[in-house]
Design brief:
Layout (H helix, E strand, L loop, with lengths): L1 H21 L4 H4 L6 E2 L1 H7 L4 H11 L2 E4 L2 E5 H18 L2
Helix pairs in contact: 3-4
Length: about 90
């Protein structure tokens, strides 16, 4: 009987380690939300930009959300920032 408890405890520990290796469950942050999020690489591809140009743009817009070592970009904030910049440039040219 003692061995079964030890085996159960060992399996629980292995399961915890497996969960930690997967990383955080990001779905809990975006589930049910109407907002759009992406990674730097996918965002750069989406906007047809150089990777580092997209990273700098996202940082300027304040659209970065860091979760542990991962960073996701809130596309709603980024879009709003881009629209504001276009409006400001439009009024300067007049």
């Amino acid at each position: 009987m003692g061995k079964k408890k030890e085996e159960i405890e060992a399996e629980k520990k292995r399961e915890i380690v497996r969960q930690l290796r997967k990383g955080p469950d990001l779905e809990q942050y975006v589930e049910g939300k109407k907002r759009k999020f992406t990674t730097y690489a996918r965002g750069a591809s989406l906007y047809s930009m150089n990777y580092y140009s997209f990273v700098n743009l996202a940082k300027e817009a304040g659209a970065n959300i860091q979760i542990k070592k991962k960073v996701i970009v809130d596309l709603d904030i980024l879009e709003k920032y881009i629209e504001e910049q276009c409006r400001e440039e439009g009024t300067e040219n007049v």
